Amino acid sequence: VCSSVSKYLLFAFEPTEMVFSHAAIVFARSDFSTFAVLSSEVHRLWAREAGLSSTLETRGRYTPSTCFETFPFPRPTPLQQNRLESAGQQLYVTRTDVQRRLGLGLTKLWNRVEDPSEDRAEIVELRRLRGELDRAVLAAYGWEEDVGKEEILRRLRGVNLGRGR
Which residues fall within 8 angstroms of residue 121, CB to CB, at 6 or more apart? Predict the structure, then answer.
């Protein structure tokens, strides 16, 4: 699940018996590899270009038709799939644990992650895990770690074209 309008594009697993408002985007997936890809810088870049430019005040608006349905997910090898699953699970479990220990909601926690002056060990670890997740996603596409943002978008467009989108 993610909020359709938010300062950060953040995803979370929620119980299936929950009733969600129209402001929540629900994804019928329960695997950490999908969480990893959706939580990656690769997907954030795509979503920003595809639809997050639509805003409510200063917050981006995530629309499934433009941000999710058009996104060319990687087609990882089994080894890459395992790496995605592991990276997603590590980030999610650690993030959830840090939220509970610090008594913070997701946005307040991510404000701290994004604050370069924040040097608390748990926050530094979340940044490290986010980097690991991003590297796992790039590897699932077969791309090198130092590829720039514009090049990622160019390559994603190429993947979409190659798949007939």
Answer: none
Nearest one of 48, 51, 139, 124 to 87, comparing CA atoms: 139
Max Cα–Cα distance, the chain, nearest Å: 46
Residue of 63 and 89 predicted with greater confidence: 89
Q: Which of 76, 67, 72, 85 is nearest to 31 (CA)?
A: 85
Could you give the CA distance from residue 132 to residue 124 in angstroms, rounded to a whole number? Answer: 13
| Other Cβ atoms closer than 10 A to 62 | 22
Q: Tell me whether strands 59-61 and 5-6 are parallel, antiparallel or unpaired.
A: antiparallel
Total-model pTM: 0.92
Rounded alpha-carbon distances, angstroms, from residue 7 to 46, 80, 102, 157:
16, 30, 20, 25
DSSP string, 85-145: HHHHHHHHHHHHHHHHHHT--HHHHHHHHH-TT---HHHHHHHHHHHHHHHHHHHHHT--T
Both tokens of residue 106? 């997701």
**51: helix, coil or strand?**
helix
% of residues, the chain, pLDDT over 70: 93
